[in-house]
From TrEMBL:
<feature type="transmembrane region" description="Helical">
    <location>
        <begin position="45"/>
        <end position="65"/>
    </location>
</feature>
<keyword id="KW-0812">Transmembrane</keyword>
<feature type="transmembrane region" description="Helical">
    <location>
        <begin position="116"/>
        <end position="138"/>
    </location>
</feature>
<feature type="transmembrane region" description="Helical">
    <location>
        <begin position="77"/>
        <end position="96"/>
    </location>
</feature>
<keyword id="KW-1133">Transmembrane helix</keyword>
<protein>
    <submittedName>
        <fullName>Uncharacterized protein</fullName>
    </submittedName>
</protein>
<keyword id="KW-0472">Membrane</keyword>
Length: 146
């Protein structure tokens, strides 16, 4: 496991948590844009977007409002799980063309999909830095020892 020997660490818990919330809300925004930009939206796409928007939005609210360390850890884990699932679906639909969504599947040049992958990947990376102890998320703090 990467630990960096404790030499690299940041004590900005509110900033890290705010960044996590912003990344999840970025996923929400790109999904809303994707659904609004498609004239013929099949039912399965609407269900997926509703689940992604609801899930990411709810997790973002939990990250904002939760004060319990255990609930906060659960929120980060749920956010990472949602991000991995979303990134997997988006990457999968870049590889496999869906006949009901020809304009946004089977292609790598769709801006909303690229941004969604970036937001989801960045959230997982940010959570990894929290797990490694490089960053700390609210309500915890680094306990510096000099």
């Amino acid at each position: 496991m990467l630990s960096l020997g404790g030499y690299v660490a940041f004590n900005m818990p509110r900033t890290v948590t705010a960044a996590g919330v912003a990344l999840l809300l970025g996923c929400v925004a790109t999904h809303i844009y994707a659904v609004l930009s498609q004239p013929d939206r099949p039912a399965f796409f609407l269900v997926y977007v509703a689940a992604a928007v609801t899930g990411c939005g709810l997790i973002a609210v939990l990250l904002c409002l939760t004060r319990s360390p255990v609930a906060m850890q659960l929120s980060w884990v749920l956010g990472s799980a949602a991000s991995v699932v979303i990134a997997g679906i988006v990457a999968g639909t870049r590889i496999v063309r869906l006949s009901a969504l020809p304009a946004i599947t089977g292609r790598w040049d769709v801006a909303a999909a690229t941004l969604t992958l970036a937001f989801a990947g960045a959230f997982v990376a940010l959570h990894a830095t929290v797990l490694l102890g490089i960053n700390v998320a609210y309500p915890r703090r680094q306990h510096w020892v000099d």
